[in-house]
Amino acid sequence: MQDEEAELKKEKEIKEKPSRTSVKARFKRLGAGFKYRLFKFTIVSLIGLGINLAALALTEFVIGKITTVLDVEYTYWIFKFTIKGLIAIAMGIAAATTSNYILNKLWTFSGSRDERVGTQFIKYAIVGASGAVLKYLLTTTFTKQFHKVVPNIDNATLAASAFAFVITVFWNYMWNEVWTFDVLEKIPEEPIVVPPNMDFRDITLITPTFNENENIGPLMEHMNENYKGIKLIVADDGSQDGTREQVHKFSETNPDFILLDRETEEIHGLTISVLDAIKMTETKYYVVIDCDFQHPPEKVGEIAIRLREGYQFVIGERDEIPDWPFSRRVISWGASVIGKFSHWIHRSASCGDVMSGFFGGETEYSKMVIEKHPKGFRPKGYKIMFELLKHSRKKETKVGRVGYVFNPRVRGESKISKKHIFEFLKSAFP
Q: I need a labelling partner for 83 at 20 to 30 A (CA). Which of 144, 213, 335, 411 fits?
């Protein structure tokens, strides 16, 4: 019987696992998402160019401080070089290739199929080497042509290099798209329908608070009216604005809504507040949500349905963030790339929006992760979901998603500070 169940499970996994896309098919799909990925690839290439120049200059500087023996100039055919120069060029290429591969894997081609890193990196390096040869040939050829109309040879070379760079970026992108990275076709998501009389007795909602007097009341009212049987833990970190008093009063007529008062605790922070709440959760599942309504409460039902489908974690991923300034988007992008890189090097579970604070989890599984890594969390941090995923093995953890629009804060002020950003960086690279 067990053998039959194992066989059926294996057959199901084979059916669910998408087959690899042929190179011919990848050429045909170049138009799908082409402009968006090419734009990302170009940005990464410019970053790589900067890293290349910085690594080259730094290597020459360091070698120059250590010894002058490597400054001797050699001539081979028409080429003149020094050993120091060759080492600097090699370091610059290595640094740029590695950084570009990581950024493209985690950002440009984030939707690509999982593949052995070694194999994928070799493919990427081969494409990069072919691009370097192409750029050299184009620069040499067009410098001669531009020099006919541009008297200054330096200006002619600069113009030729810029022209060659544009063509090379397109060349590298095309071959990485059709050979290195197998981008998965995005299947439109079916809408999740929450039945009107759905029972939520197996769900505990966790909301961390600190001076959220304006928001906690409306949130409790909404959850009580719209989610039959749901439990609620308000993990308060010592509010002085009446937040705790509101929860106490509400729980008198709604005993399933309770306060976790952390005022006298030695360590304060969003992460430790949520961890403490998860530890005291008794239902099969939990959902973590901010009480400022930036996380839409109506999505809690969709997360609950996904959890019941067998996912250990279901992440509320921000499909749209209206009204964010450019600077905030850049910071968010940088943090997302760092977070995905951290998950990648830890070989842990991950998701499309690693900076999300809106997520659900299977309680016992999360408690197991927390117990196995008692010192693996930054108590004063604010990205608990990122840390839970970081300590969850990729092969053992099934992660689902629910898309949502990240709303602007209606009442109150954001608690995020530079201190939180520093805590996140420490949690990403312990």
A: 144
